[in-house]
Amino acid sequence: MAETRDRPVTPSSREELATLVASHDRVLVEFHTEGCGKCAAMEPVLSGVARSTEAVVATMNPRDDPELIDEYDVRSVPKLLLFVDGDLATTREDGVLSVEEVRAFVADGD
């Protein structure tokens, strides 16, 4: 999994996600599914957040590792999860958000 601050990274398993979360102070994860229009609309938003915050941004399809669905209570997508210092700080399931709204979520999510 290549890591860059210019665009979201894409962990493919719970183990990769756990390693990412443990390796950084602040990680924003978007759970999405294939064919989700709202999820697709979030792609440029998340790229903007990746470029403009100190948080590492990741996108992941929880269906690739179905235990994630129960572990993080995924009932709708897109679902944002903010991890701070290795712990889940907060989540959000509001559909399409602006770059400013997501940056505020990342900044205020302690």
Automatic annotation (TrEMBL):
MF terms in GO: protein-disulfide reductase activity
Any one Gene Ontology cellular component term annotated for this protein: cytoplasm
Domain spans labelled Thioredoxin: 14-106
InterPro entries: Thioredoxin-like_sf (IPR036249), Thioredoxin_domain (IPR013766)
Domain of life assignment: Archaea
Coiled-coil region list: none
PANTHER family from the UniProt entry: GEO12009P1
Name of protein: Thioredoxin family protein
